[in-house]
Known about the structure:
The chain has eleven helices and nine strands.
Amino acid sequence: xxxxxxxxxxxxxxxxxxxxxxxxxxxxxxxxxxxxxxxxxxxxxxxxxxxxxxxxxxxxxxxxxxxxxxxxxxxxxxxxxxxxxxxxxxxxxxxxxxxxxxxxxxxxxxxxxxxxxxxxxxxxxxxxxxxxxxxxxxxxxxxxxxxxxxxxxxxxxxxxxxxxxxxxxxxxxxxxxxxxxxxxxxxxxxxxxxxxxxxxxxxxxxxxxxxxxxxxxxxxxxxxxxxxxxxxxxxxxxxxxxxxxxxxxxxxxxx
Length: 255
């Protein structure tokens, strides 16, 4: 029985009272991986709008190969974040058409028929040193099938740089604002646009930046109402959050 038919059957059995939710979820787990080191969630795309992605740190190259092959077999994009250079080189021999970004330690394999056709996300960074985190968010949005544009080095130390990007800011469906130091840029951007703003603190800065805590606290206390704040250096999480926003706005478009 095909996966979607199986899910529909389970929903009907839950609605009729034949199955309880715990049993239904247990049966859905049949679509997970049976590898002894990974239990892949092959129904995440139906639930969340994007497939399961891979956190590469701490995994061996062989484990990443097996996980990648299983995800790719479902015709889903393969996104590996925080991958080591050695593991990336190993996978590039197997997937020569993959994209490996050394700056963000991100590895991306897209299916042949994959199309970027949803929404208009913008990522703006305060400085050049925020790019690794910003690029992780960018590749995540790409893997989610979302259009994304990057405006780098537009921090508040030169306010004219922010102002020059106002046309880009105002046409975006969602904006990820990446900043370290004092983390002021999201407040400025949040006062210029009506779309959702996701503040992404980075660990960039001198001593009292406290590894990104100062930027995060500043963003949490932003006077621009409604700004959402992510964890420090979590470009992947910011990308997924932005993809959820875009998916909610473009429900009729499937990648």
